[in-house]
Amino acid sequence: MVLEIIKKALLKIGIDGALAFTILTRLVQGAGGIVSIVFIARFLSPEEQGYYYTFASILAIQAFFELGLGSIITQYTAYEFANLKWGANFELIGEDIYKSRLSSLLRFCVKWFAIIGGALFLILLVVGYVFFYRYNKGMDIEWQKPWIILCVTTSLNFFIDPVLAFFDGLGFIKDMSKVRLFQKSVFTFLLFVFFACGFKLYSGGLASLLSISVNYIQIIFSPRVKYLKAVWVSKAEWAISYVKEIFPYQWRIAISWISGYFIYQLFNPVLFATEGAKVAGQMGMTLQVINGISLISLSWITTKIPSFSNFIARKEYIKLDELFNHTLKNLLLVNFGLLLFVNITVQLFNFYHISYAQRFLSLIPLLIMSFTCFLNQMVYSWSAYLRCHKKEPMLMQSIVVAILITLSTIILGNKFGVLGIVGGYGFVITFVSLTWAYYLFKTKKKQWHSAVA
Fold first, then answer.
1. Reported pTM
2. What is the DSSP letter of 429?
3. How far is residue 276's CA from residue 273's CA, in Å, rounded to a whole number?
4. How far apart are CA 350 and CA 407, in angstroms?
5. What value, to the nearest 5°, has the Cα angle with vertex 14 and ends 294 and 433?
């Protein structure tokens, strides 16, 4: 009885089974990130902390290789699978044309990400070595072998992520949420164990390597692989053309993703090079908490992308908007509450002179970063809504915002340090990114939906 009441209450705020597991996954990430702050502050020096977070920023170069294709896979898979269904014994039921197109999409993904994953490993390895050797500033820190391990794990994760995205498009959102939850739980647990055992910068790489191996085991040695085989063997004369169907849409997404690197991942390397590893570590720890909050709240949108795509494919725009508006409202409430909690907690640490507070940015930069995080929730949600139409109207917006933030980060960062970086970032997000994104959301939605009505 109590469980039924709780279930109904959760459904009222948009939390279904898939979202519940996704939220749990994000909570594990978020809570793990917060707890890991204690371990990082306890077992890493301020300089090693700078290396730890700058590693993550450089690894984000993978955005230049993924080019947004991971998110596109879910949408295209959902579009084709909207005309199919699963029968007994893993049988794919529906017209051959849709089964064949779905099969061609899976084959393309496997080949593409296998090749690009290898290239990603080599380039990450070289870029990391060049950067850290140049800006090491004589610090006696063992970073070379940990960096190699991280490059390996990033490449392995680069290949498995699109497979999970393909399953999402097939409708296995709840199941994939369980898969991701288990993997993140394993990573978090192992990360703490390795830190506690004194593995220092090796901790992240080893935890990632073992936890990603869990993902491969979950897919290969389970009935899930039979669904992939059923899709794989359904290939016939019909195929999705990457050049004609995916690329015209993807290249716009790709530029947006690349722009995202300069928007969100440039802070740490710039601070590492100009102000040293300690300051870069403070920015990194602050970003880890804020990004963890963003991951949790954005679960409300990301788990609804297949539903948005299905409504659009069937031209059910009223249902689409009802679901989106309800989802966005809940997302913003969750995000605001979590940001408020974090800001109050950090200031209490400062008030009571708890040393962990010194590993974060000071009050004003922290408030600015929190405010921009809240605004970015709306920008991301609007862009996700529009992209589910298999179009990318925010291309120019992404490019301009990325250029402005890159310039402000480099120029203001060199002149005013951390305050200059976060101040310029907050200004661009508030007065350029948010307003431009809202205009595109309102005008494009009206244009696309009225044209079909």
1. 0.68
2. I
3. 6
4. 32
5. 35
